[in-house]
Structure formats: C-alpha cells, structure tokens
Amino acid sequence: MAARRLGGSSWQQMRLLSRRWCLQAGSAGKREQNRYSSSSTALEETVENSEVTREEIVLPRRKTWDKLAVLQALASTVNRDPTAAHYMFQDDPFLMPRNTASSRLLSLSKESGRSAAKYIIKEFPQYFDKTIAEPNIPCLMPENLTPQIEGVSEAALKERIHLRRVKASVDLFDQLLQAGNPVSLETTNSLLDLLCFYGDGESAQEKQHEQKGDLEEPEGNASEQKSPKRQFQKSLNSSGSRWRENNNAERIFKIMPERNAHSYCTMIRGMVKHGAPAKAYDMFTDLLNERHKADVHTFNALITAVPYLKEKFAERWVLVKDFLNHMVQQEVQPNVLTFNAVLKTLRRCGGVGRGVSLSVIKEMNALDIEPSLATYEHLLYIFYRSAELRPSTIITEIIEEVEKKSFTPQDPDDANFFATAMQACCDLKDIKLAYRLNKSMEKGDNWKFLDMDRLNAYWSKFFSLLCMMEQIDVVLKWYKEMTPSLFYPSPRNMFDLLQALDAANHLEAIPSVWGDIKQLGFSRRQDLLEELLSLMSREQHPEETQLAFAKCAEDIKAAHEQSGRDQAPLEWTGSALGHVVMLFSRAGRTQDAWNMMEHFQKINRIPTDQVMDEFLNCAKQTNCPDEAIKLVKLAASFGLPSTLKLKSRTEQEFELSEKQKKALESIQSDSDSSDSDSDSDRD
Amino acid sequence: MAAPVAARALRAVPWSRSCVPAALGARRDLHATPACLKTRAARVRVGKGDKPVTYEKAHAPHYIAHRKGWLSLHTGNLAGEAGAAERTVEDVFLRKFLYGTFPGCLANEVVLKRRANLLVVCLVLVQSLAPSKLYFLIGYAETLLSHFYKCPVRLEVQTVPTKVIYKYL
C-alpha cells in the first residue's frame, strides 16, 4: 500500500516539484496557488492537494514588462559611487571640480559651449539639414524660424505671432490697421497674449539679434530703467522688463473695437507679471463692470499681486477673500495653484497668515485638491520662519504626508520645499525628522526637485545638523560617503566638523581634514586657520600626531607666505603665530620655530609666556643653547617682565660655553640699565 | 609643330633604348622583376635620436592587433555589413574637426567607437587649457557633432600633463 502510494506519487511529485519551482521563481501574487507554500509539506498532504487541483490548471497571467525594465533592474544593482563627481563632469582628476564654485563654473561653461554650438547651427542651417537618420530625429534638425508668408495679411501676422517675433508682429498689426483691414478678435487676442507674456520687451531670440547689432547701447538704458522699480521687479517677474506706460499692449487694447473676457484676462496677467499691480486691479474692475468672467489663471495672478496692493496684513487678507468670493460668484473652479497663491500671500501677512492658513488647507481638502510641495513649503515658512518659533506639530504632519508618495512638479515653488524643510529641521534641532525627510527625498521622483545649487544647500544644512547631534563615527561615515560626490562642504560645514571632532576628542583626524580644506580651496580663510591652529596646539599629543600637526603648521605657514596673483598675502595674527611656534617646538623643529619667532617683531606682537616656555623646552631637548640665548635677547628687546625668568632658566638648564655665558650676561646688563633708569626716575 | 613631327620620326625608327640620348643621363632600362619599393606607410623613420615619438607613432601598421589597437571601431567592415566607406569619411571629418576645435591640446590620435547609434569619441588632451575652457569646447563639440551626424555623440576626455613620449628616434 505504502509502496503503491509512493510509486504513484513519485510522478506527481515531480510535477509538484516543477510547479513549486515555478512558484518560487514567480511572484507571490498568484492567489490561486497559495495552497502551495514554499515550506516543505508532508508527502500525504501534497498527494491530496495534487489530486484536488489536477483538474484545474490555472495558467498564470502573462507579465508585461516595461521597455526599460532590464535597464532599470541593472541600474538598481549599481550603487552610488562615493568618490565620483556628478555625472555631467568628465571622470578625470584635472577636470573634476573640487568645490561648489568650481562645479558651478564647469557646468556653466559646458552649457555655454552648448549654446555656442546651437548658435552656429542656427546661423548656418544649410549644413545641418540633411536627413541621414532613419527615422528622422526632429530635435537634431535646425529649427526653421524665419517667417515664410510675406506680405501684409492676417495669416502672415498669425505666423509671426507663432514664431514669437514681437516687434515684427506689432509692426505688421499696425500696417494692417492702416491699410484698413480689420484684424479678427482671435488674432488680436493672440497678439495681446504675446505682448503680455514678453512684457513688450523682446523674446530671447530677438534680444540676441539686437545685441549683435549694437553692443554698447542697450546695457546702459536697461540698467537705468530698472533701478527705480527694483522691488517690484525682483519679486514679481522673472523676465526683467518693466510694464511701461502706454506700451504696445495697452495701445492695442485701447484701439480694439471689441474686447472679450480673454483680452481683459491677458492684460491683467501681463500687468501682474511685469510689475504693474495697481493697473491690473483697475483692469479687473473694468472686467467686472463689463460683466465678463475671468478665468482661474487671472484670479491666481491677482491673488499673487495682493501684497503689493495693500500694506496692512488684515487688509491683504480681506482683499484675498474678496477675490475668492468673486471666484465663487463667477463659478470658476480653483486649482492647486490658486491655493498656493493664497498661501504665498499669507506668507507676507504675519500673524494673520498663521491663524488663517490652516483653514485654507482644510478648504483645499474639502475641494479634493491634492496639495503640491509648494503648499507644504508655504506652510513651513509661515509657521517656522518667523521670529518666534512656536513649537507645533505641523512639520511632523507635513513630513508624514510627503513620505507617502512621490510628487510631480506642479508649481515653480515646489523646488524650494526640501531646502525649507531641512532648514526647519535644523532650527528645531531634530535629527530624526531630518532622517525621515532624507528618506522621502530619495523616494521615487522626489530627488528631481533639487538642482545643483539647492542640492548643495540641502546637504550642507543636513551635515551641519549631523555634526551637532550625532556621534562622531556616524558623522565621519556620512562625511566620507557624501563628499565630494553629493555636495561640497561649505566653510561653515568644516567648522562644524572640527567642533564635532573636538567634542569627541578625535583630534588625530585633523591632518586629513586639513587636506580636505586645502582641496576645497578654503586654505586662505583666516577664521578656519585660527580654529585649526588653536585646536592643534591646545594640548600635548602623542609623538606621531605631533609630527603630523607640525606638517599642517608648515602648510599653513606656506599658505600665509605665498600670495596669489591678485590676492594680498595673508596677515599673521599674534595667536596664530604663537600656535605655529608651539607646534613646531613640540615636534622638535627648533630652526623653524625660531624663524617663526622672528616674525613677531614684524607684526608688532608679543609672544605669550607659554609660547616662550615651549620654545625653551624644545631648545633644551634638541640641545641648542644658541637658540635659547637668542630667545632671551628677543624677550629683552620686547621689554618683557618674564625676561629675568627666562634668563635664569637658560642659565640653569643649559650647558653654556664661556662665550655664551658672556652673551647672556650682556643681555642682563641691558635690562638692568633700563631698570636703573626707571629707578632713578622714581627718585 | 615640331613635336608631332619628331614623334612620327621616332615611331618610324625601330625603338631601342639606345635612341635616347645617353648624354642627358636618362636611361630607361628594362625591369625584369617587379619593383619593390620600401614601405613608408605610417612609419616614423629613425633619425638622430632627438625626435620624440608617442607609442602610437612609434609602431608601424603591421603591429596593429599585436602591439597596437584600432583607432576606429565599427562594424562596417564585417561580412554582410554596409556603410564602411561612409564611416571612414565620417572618421576623417571627425579627426580634422577635433584637431581644429582643440588647438594644440590633442596628445594622441582620437579613438572613435561606435555602439549602435552612439558615437563615443575618446580624446587624450594635454592640460594646456583651463578646465572651464575645456568644458566649453567639450559641450560645443558634442552638440555640434550630434546635430551634424544626427546621432548622439559623447566625448570622453582624459588629460595628461604633457604628451606621453614613448621613445626618441
């Protein structure tokens, strides 16, 4: 019986084994075969189950793989190389950037090389328009930006608007009107769109042509125009041009025979963008009088302009509520940008903003609008960046929300979220929150919100927080992994690192930190050098550490003495010199120490007693009585009260020859004579 | 007028080498064996010992695949593949273009590698220009060549302090 069962079951077992192998290779999501677990089951059980399920052979559903799945799987096996620079740089020691400034410079020069090539391609399109690729790649072909349709007609005007030629389209429009041909409302609206977008300045291409023509003239005019209205410009618009009085857009708007809602909306948005918020508000009142309906973008623009329309916080909030009521009346659906605009305005409303922002968020949730990162950024700013840091749990809630998913960019202000959040964590000194924020940044696509500058700022703040709050080995681990591949430490970061090393009594790592400082190009910063020297010379250390410190001191001395092409040489301070002398003395480098002592006279400073004692110790160890005598002479020339003490020490501790003894005596006589002079004065 | 007359006169006479005036020093002897001239392709002739020469130049073409690699790698020369001539013409243009774009910086010949659609240009440059200038030229060359050849072009640059001299000939 048992044998039969075994014989019978062996064939089934083979099938079972192959099935189980398939199962283990496949995913765990196959509900139908959950009965087969990968753990071993008894023979009888498997025989039983196989008989039950032999009738139903359930084929697993076919998996469809993404085209890039293999590449993504391979990419997940490759970890980040902590020694390499960013991918855009060449992998060569000469061409790798060492610090933030260098990385910016190199990435910008590569970009300017690209735009130089694009300029060549635009100037000589006839060499680049052969289609040799099969299928044709449109992004590698030169763009055709010259208008094809000639003559004075509406189609020509439409084409020039499409090609974004501002001046040409305005001229053509005027010509059309003068010739008596009416231009349709749509075309006029699109012309207004173009003018309001560019603010009656020129688009980028035309600017290039202008600059080619007259190089000296535009710069002076532009800067004069910009200065009076700087504040509006900086905050409101990015294109840098001003809304001039009675410019082309206004002129065309006035002479339009009929206007519809679109015309008003475009004008309002253009005025807000280019720094004329009062006019925008007047235009809005006109729109209401004409009983037109504005669209959601216009309302968003008006809400962002509110801080420039009213001064008092309460008035600003009243105006915002006013706009929102208009929106309700005109049945315009708000979107996420509307709420972001409201919060941005509330940023500048102080206490009023704080009280109201939470209800804004509740409204957003009620309308089922997903908040974007900019929403959270505005909230953090409102609650955490004001002068009084009231503790609140908002940041925890926000980080919880952000952890859950990967965001897509919806608002230009999204990019500032991570930097603001990290700043808030640093202010609150909460390292756990910072770790959570870091994890959420690495999730999905969230890392794409940080470009090079923001990445540097973010990691810089994170590293400062780490240095303050974490153990030294954790700090050093992060330091090794993050620099120089992810970010370049700032001088502040190096300061914090030195403090952390000091707190952990780990000062042997200082020479390697000094190497990094040199590489980053901070070797001429006085404050860093002072900090380094004082940390190194504070206590006596074991022999090899002392030698390493002396080498650092030598480097620092060299950094002081060499002067760059346009840099003034670094000035020595008294304390720095003293520290260097002590470091040299402790390492037994008497000659170097003496050279440094002579610097004291040049900078008119006096060495401290401790420095001179150290020097004497060193001279004793290396058996150089000459140096000791020179030291006493130096002390006498300064007129120091410790001269006598030094002299007595020299006499006792050194074996002096006759000549040296006489020299020592002569010094004493100098100081004695000065004493007797003073005595006689007293008499 | 005189020449055709003279030619006809010469043709009338049975041709032999003695016709040619020997006084002029020109002789047209009969070559019974094929002429075997020295090969001069891609070889630097040995001189006084003051001519510095890189590894690439020091080795003659018969050392390719033994001591040298190829400067241009593509599948056009395999059996059944087309486009070998086009690749060669592209190579010539690329070398001239890069020689001009990086003035005085090329330490060695340019190595061109083609993988599917991608063209990888491997340069060894001398560190004569500042890194920012080199990056400007790299960005410029990559974009221009991509638009010219309608395929992605990537420059991989390695820098050396001076040209690497293998020996002096």
TrEMBL record, chain A:
Repeat (PPR) residue spans along the chain: 260-294
Secreted keyword on record: no
Gene Ontology molecular function, alphabetical: ribosomal small subunit binding; rRNA binding
Region of interest (Disordered), ranges: 205-243, 657-683
Compartment list: Mitochondrion
Biased composition (Acidic residues): 672-683
Keyword Magnesium: no
GO biological process: mitochondrial translation; regulation of translation
Biased composition (Basic and acidic residues): 205-215
Sorted UniProt keywords: Mitochondrion, Repeat, Ribonucleoprotein, Ribosomal protein, RNA-binding, rRNA-binding, Transit peptide, Translation regulation
PANTHER family: PENTATRICOPEPTIDE REPEAT DOMAIN-CONTAINING PROTEIN 3, SMALL RIBOSOMAL SUBUNIT PROTEIN MS39
Annotated protein name in UniProt: Small ribosomal subunit protein mS39
Organism: Dromaius novaehollandiae
The gene coding this protein: PTCD3
